[in-house]
Design brief:
The chain is mainly α. Helices cover 83% and strands 2% of the residues. It has eleven helices and two strands; from the N terminus they run H-H-H-H-H-H-E-E-H-H-H-H-H. The chain has a two-stranded antiparallel ribbon. Helix 1 packs antiparallel against helix 2, helix 1 packs across helix 10 and helix 8 packs antiparallel against helix 9. The longest helix is centred in the middle third of the chain and has 48 residues. The radius of gyration is 23 Å and the shape is globular. The termini are far apart.
Length: 324
């Protein structure tokens, strides 16, 4: 009997070590790829001609960068067991808010791309000079209101533990869980399935219309150049949305089945398997904040040429400084 208990204890410690090491390392991989990548995205997109699309793409890179930095800070606080007070718990809600805003910003980019391609003549009506900024601010305000309950109610219960008060336990478990899951995961997931499909369909229609126009009026070089820019940005956005959709699927499935206690936690092996699956699902959902640069660089020749030009410019400036 004692031998069996010792074996189970050793196995439990072994699994806990694996879980801890995974949790300890994964964020550094994301930060190592995502922070320089998002900085590069910000520099490249701001160097392009300012349009609604480039503005939203820059905003997306800023939101992803901020989400990664804040997640790293709180990750280290949990690793080193830094005591959380009321302010720390409120900041935890802010981290979730920034992450949610980053997801919704991509939805906003997809919406802009669809409207610009599907209704090119009405683009200037839909997106005036100040309207894109107003929409982005309004989106942030709506998400703040959606998180207001968590910001008010979430507080520290132990030194390193934030939770809702016992009086609201039934509401949180029955309603608030599904409200936050719908806003954070399900609705962006559904929209990121719909908008890329609509963008692809609109791009195909636009290409057919452009080919017909070229056959009738060959001298359309100005329109063709502008169209190529629009298509390049749209391809980047569609690729990003597809990657986010795929990596978001596991966390959506997890949040969908978790309240029904369908996951088996009976034995040490199954508990370890379920925990690692949860870790991997959350890691995949956070990969979205780190891979924008890789997607843009792989999907768009225009983005690659802009990035290379930016690197050459930086190296030239550095050589001049060294010579001086």
């Amino acid at each position: 009997m004692n031998n069996t208990n010792d074996t189970e204890s050793e196995l439990f410690q072994y699994y806990r070590t694996i879980e801890y090491q995974y949790y300890k390392v994964y964020i550094w991989v994301l930060v190592g790829v995502g922070v320089p990548g998002n900085v590069a995205c910000i520099l490249v997109t701001t160097s392009m001609t300012l349009t609604t699309a480039t503005l939203y793409m820059s905003l997306l890179a800023v939101a992803d960068l901020l989400a990664l930095v804040l997640k790293l800070i709180f990750h280290q606080m949990y690793i080193y067991e830094v005591p959380l007070n009321t302010i720390g718990c409120k900041m935890e809600v802010f981290v979730a808010l920034v992450s949610c805003y980053a997801n919704w910003t991509l939805v906003l980019v997809c919406l802009e791309r669809f409207l610009s391609i599907r209704f090119p003549l009405k683009k200037k009506i839909y997106f005036t000079k100040n309207r894109p900024i107003l929409i982005a601010v309004l989106l942030g305000m709506i998400l703040c209101l959606c998180n207001l309950y968590a910001f008010i109610q979430l507080d520290h219960r132990e030194e390193s533990y934030c939770s809702y008060p016992d009086s609201s336990f039934d509401f949180v478990r029955t309603y608030w869980y599904w409200i936050t899951a719908f806003i954070y995961y399900f609705l962006p997931f559904i929209l990121l399935l719909i908008f890329p499909f609509l963008i692809i369909v609109s791009l195909r229609r636009q290409r057919k219309a452009r080919e017909a126009m070229v056959r009738t009026t060959p001298d359309t070089s100005g329109e063709t150049t502008q169209t190529r820019v629009e298509v390049a940005i749209s391809v980047m956005v569609v690729c990003d949305a597809i990657v986010v959709f795929v990596t978001f699927a596991p966390i959506c499935i997890l949040n969908l089945i978790k309240p029904f206690d369908t996951l088996n936690h009976g034995t040490i092996h199954t508990r370890f398997t379920v925990t690692m699956l949860e870790f991997m699902a959350r890691t995949l959902s956070e990969v979205n904040y780190a891979v924008d640069f890789v997607i843009y660089f792989a999907a768009s020749k225009k983005f690659r040429s802009r990035f290379k030009k930016l690197i050459r410019k930086c190296l030239t400036c550095r050589c001049r400084r060294d010579q001086e």
